[in-house]
Amino acid sequence: xSAADQVRESLEPVIAPLGLVIEDVxxxxxxxxxxxxxxVDTDVRGIxxxxxxxxxxxxxxxxxxxxxxxxSDALDASAALGDAPYVLEVSSPGVGxxxxxxxxxxxxxxxxxxxxxxxxxxxxxxxAVGADTLTLEVPAAKKSPEHSVSVDLGDVRxxxxxxxxxxxxxxxxxxxxxxxxxxxxx
Length: 186
Prior knowledge:
By secondary structure, the chain is of the alpha+beta class. The chain has two domains: 3-91, GMP Synthetase, Chain A, domain 3; 102-165, Roll (SH3 type barrels). It is 19% helix and 33% strand. It has helices at residues 3-15, 61-77, 102-106, and strands at 20-30, 33-42, 86-91, 112-117, 120-129, 133-138, 147-152, 156-161. A hairpin with an 8-residue loop joins strand 6 (133-138) and strand 7. The longest helix has 17 residues, at 61-77.
């Protein structure tokens, strides 16, 4: 068993109670030390398959910090790396990492993505992830109105989250009645 597999095996029981899953583990030599990189993300396996469109809260820095402490403690107590010194890096997969599994797509409902599939490429807002299909809302173009496109997950080569610098209207937070920021009148 490789060092990365041993690390993954020792960390999965520690990460699961935090509501996270391990996306990837790499162990690389770096001089006299090793660099252990652990990618964690929100566990969506508890979401019912029938729930195809609820938005999954993005992984916060606080949750990554909590995972880092748990991983560090577990590795220090484990024999997975032996006594050799190591540098630990725990992070989320990030926006540039390709989406290839149903769970990865499910975490990105509501986001603008490009999907490369057997029939070509399509860019649209991911609105639903079923057991076997993705549904995207493709914005209107010069000669075509806004429309939905369904792609079989089996035909997907990869998906890529598109970075948006402006938020759509439905993503904007609603106005609050809270007047705690307003100045009090005497």
